[in-house]
Amino acid sequence: SVSVNAAASPDGSMTADKLVESATSATHYIGRSASITSGVTYSVQFFAKAAERSVVQFAPNSAAFPATHINFDLAAGTVSALGASISGSIVPLSDGYFLCQATLTATATSATSFGYLVIANSPTMGRFATYTGDGSSGLYLWGTQLEVGSSPTSYIPTTSAAASRSADLASLAGAGFTSWFNAGEGTVVVDGDSAGALVGHYPWCLSDNINSQSSAMLAAQFRVSSNQIRVWQSTSGGSLDDFITPSGAN
Predict the structure, then answer these.
(1) Buried b (16+ CB within 10 A) or exposed e, 174-194
(2) Of 27, 26, 42, which is closest to residue 108 (Cα–Cα)?
(3) What is the pLDDT of residues 88-127, one digit of tens each?
(4) CA-CA distance, 225 to 155, in Å (whole number)?
(5) Rg (Cα) of the chain, in Å, rounded?
(6) Mean pLDDT score of the chain, rounded to an integer?
(7) Which 3-state string (H, E, C) describes 11-22?
């Protein structure tokens, strides 16, 4: 059974439900249907928190995903992919919650039930395994989401209809920004890959005058040269000072 709005959810509202096992020998689960297309990769995610039970299983109940399931241990913070053609991850959050994610590719087209979230009594419990419940034990669930793609995106609250989003954009304004920002100094961090085809060129450059190094107050260039990654700088204009030349860098 489902106890609605039984606990605080990850967003702070009292909207997390509790999935409670029955006092019978059975598979203790909740399910949802969706139309699945062969060859398409899907991502599933949900937020879960241990109560009397601490393992939850995601098990697709569809001909498109035969004999596969994945178990999430909400006590140890670990995940076990116990079926074929499925991968997943578990991310610890605050207040005992975990973000549980799984990715899998359909091998057939199906409009039958897509997936079940199952209370498990062991991290190694098999797909749709049965056990005798006590009628009161369970765990908390919130924010289940199914979407097309190999990388789960952030949660969009929706019920009976699909939804889409624009790109996630983060911004910081007002006192939250001005309280620490110093317009007179700062740090630039670059993390990326330089394509080998760019040997002898500058795939990244920071300067106050990109067309004239000689007039630059500050210039920093990342250059691929002779199979090396070279980082140059200038603070006074003119020639650039070569201050990092790792030999044999890839």
Answers:
(1) eeeeeeeeeeeeeeeeeeeeb
(2) 42
(3) 999 999 999 999 999 999 999 987 677 889 998 889 999 9
(4) 44
(5) 26
(6) 80
(7) CCCCCEEEEECC
CB–CB of 99/47 below 8 Å?
A: yes
pLDDT value, residue 151: 86
**46 closest CA partner among 81, 88, 3, 4:** 88
Instruction: Tell me the per-residue pLDDT of 43-58, one tens digit each, with 9 for 90 and over.
Output: 999 999 999 999 999 9
Other residues' Cβ atoms within 10 Å of the Cβ of residue 128: 14
Per DSSP, the three-state class of 77 is coil
Which structure tokens are listed for 108?
Answer: 């057939």
Q: Give the separation between CA 204 and CA 233, rounded to whole angstroms.
A: 12
**Distance of alpha carbon 138 from alpha carbon 21, whole angstroms:** 6
Structure tokens at 24: 């019978």
> For a pLDDT cut of 90, what percent of the chain falls above it?
44
| Predicted pLDDT of residue 214 | 45
Distances in whole angstroms, Cα of residue 227 to Cα of each of 29, 101, 118, 195: 56, 39, 53, 11
pLDDT at 80: 86
The tokens describing 114, both together, are 């897509």
Long-range contacts of 129-135 (CB under 8 A, 24+ apart): 129/27, 130/25, 130/26, 130/27, 131/25, 131/28, 132/23, 132/24, 132/25, 133/21, 133/22, 133/23, 133/24, 133/26, 133/28, 134/21, 134/23, 135/20, 135/21, 135/22, 135/23
Please count the helices (runs of H) and the strands (runs of E) in the chain.
1, 17
Q: Would you give the DSSP letter of residue 155?
A: -
